[in-house]
Amino acid sequence: MNDRYAQTVGFVVAGVGLAATFLDWAPVTDVLTTTAAGFAGAAALAFALRRHGSGPDWLDAVAAVAATGLLLASAYAILGITGTLPRGPLLALLAGVAAVAAGAAAVAGLEKAAVRERERRTFVAVVVSIAALVFGSLVAAVVVSFLPEGPLVQVPANTAFASVGYGIAGLVFVRSFGGSLDVSRPGRRDLLIAGGGVVAIFAVHLLLNVVVAAFSLPQSTHSLVETAKAHPEILPPLVVVSLVFIGPGEELLARNGVQQFLGGAYSKHAAIVAASLVFTGSHLLAYAGAGAPPGAVLVTLSRLFLVSLVLGVAYARTDDLFAPIVVHGVYDAVQFALAYALFT
Q1: Do 166 and 216 share a structural domain?
Q2: Residues 258, 291: one domain?
Q3: What angle do CA 182, 188, 194 make, to 5 degrees?
């Protein structure tokens, strides 16, 4: 018999989401706040009924849908905020993400041990990603301190050696949990998936451009792009750095490390989503620059999440790093090349 642990977790986090609607949401309208509260309350009620075994199985799906509503309502609220982000919608957004995950686990009928293992692995993946960011930054800072001053040398070098640090952290992580280092001679299938991945990632990119333009959505820019506006000469070296350092370093950590590790508790498809969320979160500081509106940061991170799904699929389809490294490297390289053409 199902121990209903997932429903218990869902009830708690949906309750947190409901409580968040009573915090400060200004300047969000009362209608939107009430809508978020309604979704949170519906999710909490459905989870509570299932938790005590007094409701039909389909209430798990109702809880998941209501949790999705809470997530979307809080995200929509953040979109309209241009000043300081209040605690209410941010807490509701995080609670919505957790409630959706709990709802998915409940629908899948996962027992307590399976859900706890997902929680443990997700926590470890987040901690490892943060530690890798710190380690990469330290490696880059040490190396750059010995180089000549000036953005033309220091910015590409900082990016390159930070990526080396991420790769080293990813390799250590893979070895620590007994995973496999998925690097081999690429075959015809790897080449095809890499080529298809490049096409797919730019198709997603262009589609998102259309959506952003159609709804006039705000966006933030990467800190490297902000630097390049004043010093466009750093962009040609960054094209090379993307292919040689960024793609291999970040994919070794995010896919071979985090996604493979999460695959020990999640299904193959769910691991792609979970790893992409962790990957997206690791870029928060890069896009949340000084003065960046919360809505713009949210839109940009949402775009990054959808794009990173392509990288996760490329890795999952091949169980090898070649395809995601190529797709990632080419994607970033083209972005830097286009930025150079625009800024000069």
Answers
A1: yes
A2: yes
A3: 65
